[in-house]
Structure formats: C-alpha cells, structure tokens
C-alpha cells in the first residue's frame, strides 16, 4: 500500500535497505537526482523495468513536480 513520507523518514528507510526510485524523465534525472536513486521513468514503469528490485525491501518512489 502506498504511503506518503517526508524527508525525515526517508533517511532511516534508506539506511534500513529501502530502494529509492526516481520516476523522472531520463533527461531530468541526468541533470539532477537524489544520491543513490535509480531512474525508471514513469512512462516505462512496469513489471519488466522493476523486475530487478528487491521485493523484500521497501521501495520509495520519488517524483518532483513544480505545479
């Protein structure tokens, strides 16, 4: 079940083995991304692109939107 978290909760999750996925378009990811994040653009997010994720650890998905 998806749960919104804030930055103060992110650090402990990552320290405990959570995986950080940024769903930004590749060009935006290359320009600037969070340290340790893996890029899987939202339009490519599917079973094949997520197959290498460790299902035993939480996955944190991040997308920056300036609307």
Characterize the main sheet. 3 strands, parallel
Indicate the proportion of strand residues: 5-15%
Order of helical and strand elements: HEHEE
Spatial separation of the terminal alpha carbons: 25 Å
Query: What structural category arises from helix and sheet content?
Result: alpha/beta
Q: Any idea what the shape is?
A: globular
Provide the helix percentage: 10-25%
By DSSP (H or I, 4+ residues per run), the number of helices equals 2
DSSP E strands, number? 3
How are the strands ordered across the major sheet? 2-1-3
Oligomer: single chain
Low-confidence segments? none
Mean pLDDT: 90
The Rg value, from CA coordinates, equals 12 Å
Summarize, please.
With 67 residues, the chain is an alpha/beta fold. The chain has helices at 7-15, 26-31; strands at residues 19-22, 38-39, 59-62.
Folded structure, characterized:
With 67 residues, the chain is an alpha/beta fold. The chain is built from two helices and three strands. The chain has helices at residues 7-15, 26-31; strands at 19-22, 38-39, 59-62. The protein has a three-stranded parallel beta sheet, with no helix packed on it. The protein is globular. 6% of the residues are buried.
